[in-house]
Design a protein that fits this description.
The chain is α/β, with parallel strands linked by helices. The protein folds into two domains: about 10-70; about 80-285, Rossmann fold (3-Layer(aba) Sandwich). Helices cover about 40% and strands about 20% of the residues. It has twelve helices and nine strands. The protein has helices spanning about 10-20, 25-40, 45-50, 55-70, 75-80, 100-115, 130-140, 150-165, 180, 210, 225-235, 255-265; strands spanning about 80-85, 85-90, 120-125, 145-150, 170-175, 190-195, 240-250, 265-275, 280-285. Strand 8 and strand 9 form a beta hairpin. Helix 1 (about 10-20) packs antiparallel against helix 2 (about 25-40), helix 1 (about 10-20) runs parallel beside helix 4 (about 55-70) and helix 2 runs antiparallel to helix 4. The longest helix is centred in the first third of the chain and has 15 residues, at about 55-70. The radius of gyration is 21 Å and the shape is elongated. The relative contact order is 0.11.
């Protein structure tokens, strides 16, 4: 199947072949999502309309997307949006792609906050705003501020917050490693963070797609713990009594992160696992 394909079925098969040859992990799913995005056809729709000819503008846009995906550009960047916990978030170059695993953090925090009212908190390294928006969707009455350093990511953050005005979330630009930035936030009931946690020397070995995401959203310093140390030092003291801290972690970082939080005076420190049984988040309470 070549780029001369012009029916929807031929274009789908061309995409499937190109992505499979490029080593894409799940070429069938990617091909189906691209067809849905550019042709407004899901799998049943392809079965019904597969022999119809595709209009040339849509055909050219689809073929360009196939070339980009075969070149390992993240699918989410090509689509320009991605779903997370019932939210459709805008994404693109310069912002970390929301991942299903992050729901473990959001749900763990929501359980800790259940039944409590008039709470306020901050989402550190907020990126798209997925954590803050997801948490507010589960916790009525919660107000969250989002803190993000990258100007590129901040533009996506603002767009996503504007898309969900029913959730009281505000965006601020700043560096969570800075004590001066932390001092702007006081009396917090919840701190959430999905910080960079990949050790610097591991970055070159990540999947090609992940390497296309912003390094500043991935690079956690020499041992991957740089941001957790800053959270323990600069942000934990800002928690109210009974306040909750929750962070996403790498699968081998649970013991180290729990140790940092214990040393900072937090209690009831809990390690949460994802659906694959791997450590994915840590929560703790300020008592």
């Amino acid at each position: 199947m070549t780029e001369k394909a012009d029916t929807y079925r031929q274009l789908y098969l061309h995409c499937l072949s190109r992505l499979r040859a490029a080593g894409i992990e799940d070429p069938g799913t990617d091909a189906a999502l691209l067809c849905r995005h550019f042709f407004s056809l899901d799998r049943p729709g392809l079965a019904v309309h597969g022999e119809e000819h595709c209009p040339e503008p849509a055909r050219q846009a689809f073929l360009q997307a196939v070339r980009e995906r075969a070149g390992r550009r993240p699918l989410q960047y090509i689509l320009g949006r991605w779903d997370f916990m019932g939210l459709t978030l805008q994404v693109g170059e310069g912002v970390l792609v929301p991942r299903e695993d992050t729901a473990v953090l959001v749900e763990a925090l929501a359980r800790q906050l259940a039944g409590r009212e008039c709470l306020s908190g901050v989402d550190l390294c907020a990126g798209t705003g997925a954590v803050a928006l997801g948490l507010c969707s589960l916790c009525p009455g919660l107000q969250m501020d989002c803190l993000e350093l990258s100007s590129q990511a901040f533009s996506y953050l603002e767009k996503n917050l504007q898309a969900y005005p029913q959730y009281p979330v505000r965006a601020f630009q700043g560096d969570i490693l800075s004590g001066e930035t932390a001092a702007r936030f006081q009396g917090l009931d919840v701190i959430a963070a999905n910080p960079p946690y990949v050790a610097k020397d591991i970055l070159p070995s990540l999947q090609p797609e992940v390497q296309r995401e912003p390094a500043m959203a991935l690079d956690g310093g020499p041992d991957g713990l740089l941001f957790y140390r800053a959270i323990a030092k600069e942000w934990v003291p800002l928690l109210n009594q009974g306040g909750v801290l929750g962070v996403e972690i790498g699968e081998e970082q649970g013991e180290a992160v729990m140790g940092l939080f214990q040393a900072s005076g937090l209690s009831q420190i809990v390690l949460h696992k994802d659906w694959a049984g791997l450590p994915r988040a840590v929560t703790a309470l300020a008592l």
